[in-house]
Amino acid sequence: MRKLFLLATALVMITVVGGLRPDFCAAQSLYEYYADASAASLDKETREMGCELKKTFSQNNIHLNQQKIDFATYFTNLKKAVLYGNKLSTYSQYQKDLDFARDNELFKGLPATSQEQISGKERLSRKEFVAEKYERTKDNVEDEIAIYIDLLTLSLDVCESMSANDLSGFIELKENRAQIMKWQQSEDFTAYRKRSADLDLAWPDIEKRIAAQCAIWQERPAAPNAPIISAGLVNAL
Asked: Which pLDDT tens digit goes with each residue over 108-127?
């Protein structure tokens, strides 16, 4: 029984570890080897094969887990980049909006009389108030813009580094691509897509960086020399 077990295990090891398909001759020679092997040899072979199998399957599990971790980290940062990009796009014309608010605020609440009847002191007081409010609002808006740009830069740096150095191969997994494509149909991404032109207007470098990361997950176009009909389909017919 042990000899049959070791024979089956050896065939699995050849296939899993060596990446080879054992042919009939190899199976015959293995059978003869284990049929004639001593008990001591069998015990040693059992221990060695057990260690090799454990190491092989352990390495596979580590690799799969690393792919999951890498994709989760990448996807989280990509979603953050899109979220921050959407918020940043609302400030694409902030200077124009602030100027408009300032110019209209200057006359808001003033009595409906001719400009000649408004005293110079009242006019000056109003102008100083509006100017102070304008500067305070401008500083607050620019602080928010700086925060969003910093957050965007951090998220995009992570995405670009991971996609350029994909050591675990998470980008090539079809299930990951399907998850990204599904997310690109979500409300959050649709909202960003509608405002991406505004982002490109004020911060074109950031918009292009986000677009480049999203493009990575699109279906790859066929190679110029790729056959129109797959070889597998032709063989099946």
From this structure: 554 444 444 445 555 567 67
